[in-house]
Amino acid sequence: MAAMTQQLSTRHLLGIKDLTAEDIQLIFHTADSFKEVINRPIKKVPSLRDITIANLFFEDSTRTRISFELAEKRLSADVINFSASSSSVKKGETLLDTVNNILSMKVDMIVMRHPAPGACKFLAEHISANIVNAGDGTHEHPTQALLDAYSMREQLGDLKGKHVAIFGDILHSRVALSNIFCLQKLGAKVRVCGPPTLIPKHIDQLGVEVDYDVRKTLAWCDVANVLRIQLERQHIRYFPTLREYAQYFGINRPLLDSLDKKIVIMHPGPINRGVEITSDVADSEHSIILQQVENGVAIRMAVLYLLAVRN
Ligand code: CP
To answer: Is 98 annotated in the active site?
Structure first.
């Protein structure tokens, strides 16, 4: 067996596209150790004691924001939280001016969520601190894909050859793109499924299968990763009503019970209960939705730690 690489090939985490399969395995291996740490009575290690991290959130978040903050605190980093809605961005300050002002206060690392695709890449070209993308518009959400694949791996072992279906609003989803890149690097087969209006044209050129039949795709897959309908990004109508979406593309209990096998149900959250997934599926024995959230802290600890030690 080849020796595991000891450091990441990149000094930022802008997207899964930039990671190698070895980087991903290193992150998983490191997350295994941190998962053990956060299940101890004392959940803290001094690994980032001299590091200051700013969490810049220009878009709403519950899971990602809290998960990064917890990960940073578990690593003993100093943490600053910035929310665009209560900052001088509202007075017209540019992104670069805002970040440079924060960095001048001796901040070492930036975690940023921003509505503009490419915002993290833009920052990486202009500042010297490490940057972690916590979701940039419809582009990538790399730590979500890492925690998703890590959670799948806990259920299924090696993902090579496993069938993963991503259901729902693929068109507006940064989770979908990061999952596709991550799963393919780990050797899984990926299919996307949803209404034709919410599947990007030419997505098959990424090497994924496309299907519009939910029942058929559920029968094909080992894992169903169900995505939220992102109404906040939909400025035209992509389907007539939420009721019809739920009827034709929602994952419900009768559909699962009609399969002759057990599949793993995932959702990155937040969930629209009764739209893309019913409560009796989201809360069922098939679902690992809360394990995904738990694993997010260990994955983010691993990413932050590996970026910091690489400097
Ligand atoms: N999965 C995810 O990114 O959730 P939040 O928007 O709550 O961070």
So the answer is: no
